[in-house]
Design brief:
The complex is a heterodimer. By secondary structure, chain A is α/β, with parallel strands linked by helices. Chain A contains seven helices and seven strands; from the N terminus they run βαβββββαβααααα. Classes of the chains: A alpha/beta, B alpha/beta.
């Protein structure tokens, strides 16, 4: 198994910078370049930060899909290692160990739309929006109940605004190839068309002051 | 009419918890069950909870005594319903039995008495249909344990008057609950959202996208969930989770709610989760 001592992140997004910091704090020889090529025991590129999109991790000349979710409230990070057809188990294991050494929680999954968490969250958001569409309850009440009855960290519409309505719709559209149950509901499509994409545009299910 | 007297039917975990909530908020409570033995057992549960609160210095002995003093036990529906302003039913999850109970209460309760069912999965509309007061009929869905969980779903059926809903929302505030109003649909809000999370997570497991451990770890790490969806199902009981899943699927007939294969097989094998020592995880020592 390849020992990982050095990590190179290629990209200039905020997410790329966060990934570099994660490994630097974990005691790795971590560096980052905006673009181009370079070598290290582990090279991570195409780091977009878009939920549901994977970055490319290269180790010992082979590739593993990788996705980072930085916890919005706590100093935690989830690393989803995405297996591809020819991915070697030992490479997955090496990256998993490195991620855990860096203080992240690393899990392994197959290459499906939204991977583990964001696919489930996208479905939850879709159903919540459908519940709203069908006048089951008010937006605030649908959003509040999972927090006060199930101890959820955010309500479904807060999740939607945080992940981004466009990202939610993209994940649902991709998952729709597996079955019609994932087709995004009318409300979500209309929100994308109207540019109400969540926190990043200042308007989603809720409105956000510019500072957010 | 102002609500002062609350009768809770069923002294199990939910029923006695709800009775305690109302007694703590100063209401006169009747806690009814089919035998005095069951009702007494419920009161013992309340006393045990209050003793714990005294130990944690959240309550004085005098306050606890006053709470218990506001609760009267009964094993007779006629007696329990005679002076009630509000009935909250927390008996077995069986529509026919709930209907028979409310039918009897409809005859013995005053005309103004509001009827509420604490059902989680039965149709409130169907339960109400047997009474002559669907305008005063609602669901009041508390969460376990009612003494601690702040959330409350007030289920408005099509015939419930808006005045009753307004009155119950005000009541919810008085008993310290953060309530929401929703229409009568399977699982209302909370259990329907939870079901999507559980069903979608189990689908990932069914399709070997990830292990149960990794699915649970992912939710906790990425967004700060206190428990993962699969370990929660093990805790709740897989036979209960499957029954819930089946209820949604029967009602909605949507693929999203189709019960998971792994869940079905575990229940068929008698592996119900924590309570049997084996579910998606093993709990054997």
């Amino acid at each position: 198994m390849t020992a990982i001592n050095s990590v190179l992140v290629i990209g200039k997004t905020d997410q790329a910078k966060k990934v570099e910091t994660l490994f630097a704090k974990g005691g790795f020889a971590a560096s980052r370049i905006d673009a181009g090529k370079g070598t290290a025991d582990l090279v991570i590129e195409n780091v977009t930060g878009t939920p549901g999109e994977k970055s490319k991790a290269t180790i010992a000349g082979a590739h593993v899909g990788i996705n980072f979710i930085f916890n919005p409230t706590e100093d935690k990070c989830l690393v989803q290692l995405v297996k591809e057809l020819d991915t070697k188990a030992e490479n997955v294991q090496a990256i998993k160990q490195a991620a855990e050494k860096a203080g992240a929680v690393a899990v392994v999954c197959e290459d499906v739309a939204g991977f583990i968490v964001d696919r489930v969250i996208a479905s939850v958001v879709n159903e919540a929006a459908y519940m709203l569409e069908t006048n089951l309850a008010s937006m605030d009440d649908i959003n509040k109940i999972p927090k006060v009855c199930l101890n959820w960290p955010m309500g479904p519409f807060e999740f939607a605004d945080y992940v981004g309505i466009d990202n939610i719709v993209n994940i649902l559209d991709a998952a729709s190839k597996y079955g019609q149950q994932y087709l995004p509901c009318r409300t979500l499509r209309q929100m994308v068309a109207a540019g109400k994409l969540g926190r990043k545009t200042g308007r989603g299910f809720y409105e956000y002051p510019k500072a957010v | 009419m102002e609500i002062k007297n609350v009768t809770v039917l069923g002294a199990g975990a939910m029923g006695h918890g709800i009775a305690q909530v109302f007694a703590t908020a100063g209401y006169n409570v009747v806690l009814e069950d089919i035998t005095m033995e069951f009702a007494t057992k419920g009161l013992e549960g309340i006393k045990k909870f209050l003793a714990g609160s005294i130990e944690k210095k959240r309550l004085t002995q005098a306050e606890a005594d006053a709470i218990v003093g506001r609760i009267r036990l009964s094993a007779d529906l006629t007696d329990a319903g005679a002076n009630a302003d509000l009935i909250i039913e927390a008996i077995i999850e069986d529509t026919k039995i709930k209907q028979a109970t409310f039918k009897k209460l409809d005859e013995v309760c005053p005309a103004h008495t509001i009827f509420a069912s604490n059902t989680s999965y039965q149709s409130v509309t169907e339960i109400s249909s047997i009474t002559k007061r669907p305008d005063k009929f609602v669901g009041m869905h508390f969460f376990n344990p009612p003494q601690l969980m702040k959330g409350l779903e007030i289920v408005q059926i099509d015939k419930t008057t808006p005045e009753i809903v307004t009155q119950l929302m005000a009541l919810a505030k008085k008993i310290g609950k953060d309530a929401a109003v929703c229409k009568d649909a399977p699982g209302f809000i909370a259990n329907r959202i939870l079901q999507i999370q559980r069903a979608e997570s189990l689908k990932l497991y069914d399709e070997a996208v990830a292990s149960a451990e990794d699915i649970d770890k992912a939710f906790k790490a990425a967004y700060g969930f206190r428990m993962g969806p699969i370990e929660l199902a093990d805790m709740v009981g897989l036979e209960i989770a499957l029954k819930g899943a089946q209820t949604f699927y029967d009602e909605f007939k949507r693929d999203l709610f189709r019960p998971s294969r792994a869940l079905t097989m575990k229940v068929r094998a008698g592996d119900f989760g924590r309570k049997t020592g084996q579910g998606f995880y093993s709990y054997k020592k």
